[in-house]
Amino acid sequence: MFVASAAISQESHLTLDDIDKLARAKLVDSMRGGQGGQSGQAAPSSGVGLSSPLGAAPAPVAGPAPAAPKVERRPLTLVRRVIPATFVGAYSDMSGSYVLYDYQGTTYTARQGSRLLNGWTVASIDGFTVNLVDGKRKWTETIAAPADVPAVAVPDSPAVRAITDLSSPLPPGGVSSTASTFVPFGK
Question: How many CA atoms lie within 13 A of 39 on its CB side?
Fold first, then answer.
């Protein structure tokens, strides 16, 4: 008697796995309802339901084999290789805005709205940024000095330091006329 009451008490408590199995079985049964069984009722051959004993595994259902998933084949699009251009400057005049760009070691100029040699189109120029378009792709490039140009050696004299270090006072007597000073473009 004691063993029978212990078995009954174990059956009356559902575990999470049991609840999960029952919920999945009910969902599957409700989906199969339109395929031959009555809608909303479990198929009698499924072996799973609220009146079935707990822990009973559902019987395998014979039916059509699942179809292999269809693979949609798209035509292969070739990605064209574009040699990038680097932007080294910009200016504007009465006729519009222009950008200077370095392409394969040579500097060219392009007007806003024109196509570069590599196929990119200059959409707009805004300060130190250039907005570009290539087909549906849009992005922004920053205008920067080319990396391969060596920095010009500037002589280290008090006059040059006074010009480059804006927090220091001016040298007495101003900048001497005998010392040549070179100020790089853009600084």
Answer: 1
pLDDT at 43: 47
What are the tokens at 128?
């130190």
Residue 91 has pLDDT above 80, yes or no: yes
Q: Which of 109, 147, 160, 148 is nearest to 130 (CA)?
A: 109
Q: How far apart are CA 6 and CA 28, in angstroms?
A: 32
Listing DSSP states for 38-101 in one string gives -TTS--TTS--STTSPTTPPPPPPP-PPPPPPP-PPPPPPPPPP----EEEEEEEETTEEEEEE
The token duo for 67 is 């179809």
- Count of all residues that appear for the chain in the document: 187
The residue that leads in pLDDT, 134 or 187, is: 134
The per-residue b/e assignment along 123-162, b for 16 or more CB within 10 angstroms, e otherwise, is eebeeeebebeeeeeeeebebeeeeeeeeeeeeeeebbee
pTM: 0.40
pLDDT, greater one: 31 or 69: 31
- Mean pLDDT, residues 17-39: 78
Name the percent of the chain lying above pLDDT 90.
22
Helix, strand or coil, per DSSP, at residue 26: helix
Query: Do the Cβ atoms of 48 and 23 come closer than 8 Å?
Result: no
